[in-house]
Amino acid sequence: DVTCNVSKLITDNWQLITDMIDDPELREIYKTACAERMQKLEECLMHLEKYPGDREQLEDFLREIHTLKGDSRMLGVQGVETLTHQIEEVLAGVKRGESNLSAELC
């Protein structure tokens, strides 16, 4: 599950992630933003599992994962940035019609 991988990475490595972000206020903002984005990503994927042809939900998912990637890049959280980039690339391929969205992918 895509969101489980990102969520697990963030949860399992939260101390390491917070050590990468020096500013306590930025750390808290990033933590809150990650939680909100993960919730939205999970909702999108659950919907896409049932309705894989829903382009609007796919666009929403891509927008959320892109924003999480950008937030992570801006704050130097390399592991999250790398994983979200890989997820974004896979789902961008679905959007371009290069592959199909399946329950296994979700």
Number of helices: 5
Distance, first to last CA = 5 Å
DSSP strand count? 0
Low-confidence stretches at least 5 residues in length (pLDDT < 50)? none
Task: Explain what you see.
The protein is mainly alpha-helical. The chain is built from five helices and no strands. Helix 4 runs antiparallel to helix 5. The longest helix is centred in the middle third of the chain and has 27 residues. It is elongated, with a radius of gyration of 14 Å. The termini are close together.
What key attributes describe this structure?
single chain; 106 residues; mainly alpha; 79% helix
How would you summarize what this structure contains?
Helices cover 79% and strands 0% of the residues. By secondary structure, it is mainly α.
SSE blueprint and pairings:
Elements lengths: L1 H11 L1 H7 L3 H27 L4 H21 L2 H18 L11
